[in-house]
Amino acid sequence: MTGQLTAGTGTGPRPGGEEPAARHDTAASEQRRGRRPGAVATMVRLTAGHRPAIVAATVLTLAGSAIGLAQPLLARRIVDTAGHGGVTGPLLLLAGLFTAEAVTGAVGRFLLERMGEGVIRTLRHGLVSHLLRLDMREYGRHRSGDLISRVTADTTVLREATAQALVDLVTGLLVSAGALALMAWLDPLLLLLVTATVAAAALIVTSLLSGIRSAAERTQQAVGDIAADLERALGALPMVRVHCAEAREAARIGTRVDSAYSAGVRTAMLASFMSSAVELAVQGSFLVVLVVGGMRVGGADSLGELVAFLLYASYLVVPLSSVFRAVGLLQRGMGAYERVDQALALPGESPGTAARRPHAPGKGPAAEETPAALTLRNVHFGYHPGRPVLRGVSLSVPYRGQVALVGRSGAGKTTIFSLAARFYDPEAGLLLFDGRPATELTRRQCRERLALVDQNTHVVHGTLWDNITYAVPDAPSGEVERVVRLANLTDVVERLPGGLGCVLGERGATLSGGERQRVALARALLTRPSLLLLDEPTSHLDAINEAALSQVMRDVAQECALLVIAHRLSTVQNADRIHVLDAGRVIASGTHDELLLTSPAYRRLATAQTLREAGDRPAG
């Protein structure tokens, strides 16, 4: 909403600020990387609430591995006693061990997968909640598609690391240690040869880890850029089609796709080298054991001992592979977590100061003698340092009646609405609700008093009923029918298949601009606000609906405070008070007739409007 609210002033945060934000994220991430705990410590912290599941999965995995470690010893006995009969019992026991290992492994893996899903669910809940409550300036600095990608794509990569890597690393190391101990007991010389080949592979893997992490982070960044650019194109699809820009947008997004491809290929290349190093180490170890051990059979070593050692050497493949794979997954997961952490580090909107006393209009040292629904006293504000938008604005909106803001584009009208909605706080001056400073109220308490109809009307995917009752989901049908009549939506309800139950589609594509505006008005009226903010309420309406809305505004002004922004003076000429803004200041105030006599700026606006309307009329 902030982009739409601030766009009207011509001075708010601009789309396209994502590049400086991206550079800021990169620099900040590099600073954090120097002081952040390692990958294992991070995973331990992420899984802190799932320790019972991790312990159970680890115990089951170790139990399955212990069962597996017993199998080579049993196989040695079967081989050594095969010529003497009596192997049926050991064979049945071996089959039972195989089954038990499979069952415990399956249960342990399920617990891990469920734990991973739980961790990501918690992380996504936190991310969604945080992103919906960011400081409004952050939405101008970061692209919404990229922020969405951090909730979806990045957490998906992170899930694999949390679900598998940590336990695989621990159990793999323990099982490898057990297998190596048994191999040392069987033949220390062969173990030394195996250790040498594994150490060589470990050196190669270690040298590739940092590259895997950086490449994975670049991949996730490129995926976020794809989502952001695609959201940009789809959000302005009519403009794209009219200007025949499909090919240019496809090419623009294609460069992001190519970047993701390049980063993904680099990640795959490094991971492939790592996998090959592990496979060569394992195969080399097996060949060394087979050749050297085979040459020694018949001497001090028995065939059964060689078979057992070979089984342990082959059994070592699984835990070692899981260790190396876990290390790679941790690095990829940390690349994704870097972006998630950046999003979580963005400053959120402060809730405001909690109310220190029950609401009592007109009471307290800072309260007005005759409180109004909304008051601005000498308010100064700017979206960027050194670039003021409001320069000492003072005005008030009484509990009943209509107040209008007029002026050229960029005068600061929409910025006043942004302050009234507590999207931003004044840099200087006072903002008061019901005579009480906004600083004594939470943002929620302020927003519960008002409703807003933005010039860029918002219609969400869902039914017409869902959109009208968005702020009051449990509204009774009688209230909904009342606001439908007030907003002159009856003909729309009758036209749509299913009436109020008709699904409107993405961004209300099935409605015209004027119909979307009337839906937004009905939504606002349903809350029965004490202050109603209307930003260009007639911008999409024809003459008949504009006249109907003017009557609605007069009726509403008898029930609540009404603050209106309008370029069409016909919309506000019956207002109780009109404030003329120019360059962030109120330069004149009064009724329509008074301002025509006393304000040159207002006369120019009125003359320009009259000429425009005359030019729009068909020739006689």
TrEMBL record:
Chain spans, region Disordered: 1-38, 348-368
One GO MF term: ATP hydrolysis activity
Compartmental location: Cell membrane
Domain ABC transporter: 374-608
Membrane-traversing stretches: 53-71, 91-112, 165-185, 191-212, 276-297, 309-330
InterPro entries: AAA+_ATPase (IPR003593), ABC1_TM_dom (IPR011527), ABC1_TM_sf (IPR036640), ABC_transporter-like_ATP-bd (IPR003439), ABC_transporter-like_CS (IPR017871), P-loop_NTPase (IPR027417), Type_1_exporter (IPR039421)
Alphabetized UniProt keyword annotations: ATP-binding, Cell membrane, Membrane, Nucleotide-binding, Transmembrane, Transmembrane helix, Transport
Tagged with keyword GTP-binding: no
Basic and acidic residues: compositionally biased ranges: 16-32
Main location as per UniProt: membrane
Its membrane topology: Multi-pass membrane protein
Similarity annotation: Belongs to the ABC transporter superfamily. Lipid exporter (TC 3.A.1.106) family.
Protein name (database record): ABC transporter ATP-binding protein
Species of origin: Streptomyces mashuensis
